[in-house]
From TrEMBL:
Protein name: CHAT domain-containing protein
InterPro entries with a match to the protein in the record: CHAT_dom, TPR-like_helical_dom_sf, TPR_rpt
Xref: PANTHER family: RAPSYN-RELATED, SLR0380 PROTEIN
Record Pfam families: CHAT (PF12770)
Residues that span the membrane, as ranges: none
Amino acid sequence: MKKLLIKFLILAILSLVVTVSVAQIIPRMLMAGEAIAFPTNSTFLQTAITWNETGKKQLEQGEAEAALKSWQQAEIAYHKAKDENGVIGSQINQAQALQALGKYQEAEKLLIKIQESLKSQPDSLLKVLAKRNLGDVWRVTGNLIESEKILQESWKIAVSLQSPENANAAQLSLGNTAVAQAKRAESVGEKKQAKEEIKKALNFYQTVLKNNPSPLIKLQAQLNLLYLFSENPESSEVEIWLKIRESLNEIPINHIAVAARINFANSLLKLYQSSNKYTPESKEIYQILETALQQSRNLNNQRLEAYTLGYLGKLYELNQQPLEAIKLTNQALNIAQLEQAWDIAYQWQWQLGRLYNIQGEKAKTIAAYKTAINSLDILRKNLIAINPEGQFSFRDDVEPVYRQLVDLLLQPEPGKKEPSQENLKLAIENIDGLQLAEIQNLLGCTNLAPSVFTNQVVDPKAAIIYPIILDRRLAVILQLPGKDLSYHETLLDRQEIERILKELRTDLTASNRKNEVVINSQKVYQWLIQPFDEILSNNQSIKTLVFVLDGYLRNIPMAVLSDGKNYLMEKYAIAISPRIELFTPKPLSRKLKVFLGGVGEAQNIDGKEFEKIEYFEAELNEIKSNIDPIRDLINNNFTKSNIEKLLASEEFSIIHIKTHGEFSSTPDRTFIVAYNQLLKATDLARLIETNTQSKPREIELLVLSACYTAQGDNRAVLGLAGIAIGAGARSTISSLWIAQDVANTALMARFYEELSKGISRAEALNIAQKALFEQYKSPNVWAPYVLVGNWL
């Protein structure tokens, strides 16, 4: 991708989690792009210094690829000069360039290598820098716990070396990681933790300001504070904007200063939009942006110019001057497209869509939204996918684009009662696209090639149901084989929909709330199924309902929906697909080879207590009695190294793991329990996806027994699906909450008994659940199980 915004450099100012400009320090604090130099008369060292300075200038101009090559040349020169510190310093600079190119994994590998080189050396400013850089990279790649840990180490060493500027820089980075942790906690419904992390961030930023930092670090801390206060407009602290205006005059006019000015204006626009009494008048914001525009043009920086024009357009939009706003937004978009800056382009395409919508121009509105999503697709394919709090907040910056377009598509044309077939198909495509984007965002990868388009799925016995939660309604699309799409919507605010779903989920996890479950499960049935009762009844061949669930609906097992007389699982087999394109339906092979693994013993790992699984051996023995051949690794044999050896040497069609585990949209909280260690989701996927004899492994089914998804996390099921996808499994079975041990054993035994007869996965699970239902009427016992992915 051409000129990625001075990508990392501008991220230091423009992004939500403001990254301290990967500063380099020897022997003084040098800011973004400034290279490490070691004054000497040696020819090789002089050559290295020259390459360092060249790299610095190139990065400042947004030429990250060239800067990387220059710093690689500097490393070679330091090697020839036998200057170890110089080599490490040039490697740190290379890591900076790699981040500017969006190559965070490469930067991470290089910085980890640097850590090893410095491990045996005494504490130094190089060690401070290397740790802070790695902490910043880990924040971007989602390793937040380790990010905080290593940044604390960087800060402690800086304090011990009496380097206040480096201590300030580390604390600024710690504040940024705290903001990322707050966003993550908020995304999974942990509001208390989110508030605690924001409080930590505020404390870090305020401490930095009290420590008399350098002008640029001071400005960055102030901008971060302003951003946090813009999220909480009630705070009088937003008057910090007056101090920021002064701070801007203390730094030289360069790319960083202009980016800071744009970031400043963006936060002020948020406050202006909320009508906060501490916000400056629009003419003040206009002047800030006009200055940034002139400075960006003087610096010949088209990306900054595109940002500035776009925000000027937003200001005119807020001032209800849509025609001028459209003109400025188009100018910004033209520049962004010429630069192939899709990370900027999509924002102004989205803004154009909103502006055209205000003007009542539906066709132009939809066209603008489509181009915005196309730009997001290009962006995902060209940049290494990173966590939600990295480049973009998925919830704030990506998801709304899809949802607003789907909302427009599902509005009927004048004189019509419901959307056209074409728009229904487009709505499905875009909600599919949203789910794919979410999974990529969770997995941190972009190589999930679609297997088959939804409308090409051929299963004459399956109906596919798409519920879509919008701000003012719940839309549902039904797809039957060979039939036109059917549509129904319920007018209801999102907040009320989520309130009912959360109540239902809470009641489901209790053993004595059956009546409450029936009341709310009937409501959800009325939303999703009742409008299509007649259509489904007239299609007697339909045996399986496949749900492509949205939002908080993912926390509810569809089996539990009730018409007042019967649960849905009494009528149909049920499966969940995060996106049909990712799972080409394919019948299970009759020749099954199963790997059984797990730990039933009580353990304490990393301070977490895991109780003994009482019916551990009973479940595994039941499975062995129904399916052969079997290989197993049990209790103290269920270790990472043993799993790796076995899966690398043999092929298995089913992997059944019986152990404690939890799945969420947070990598740090997604794990299964091995013997004396936790296997994170990435570890598990990496172990399972191992190829055998150079042939791609095809895991038909991954069963995670005694595991559950994190309550309140509406993306946890996607995390579960992500594990299956990452491991190359076509489907997975687990539970939404902790299953009862005796009941879980009975269900798994019956499931494999039915599976061995050659019926589909969905039917086998359905029969097992019905059997459990006959014995235990409480949904708390029989309802938690979900089949995600291929249902055949």
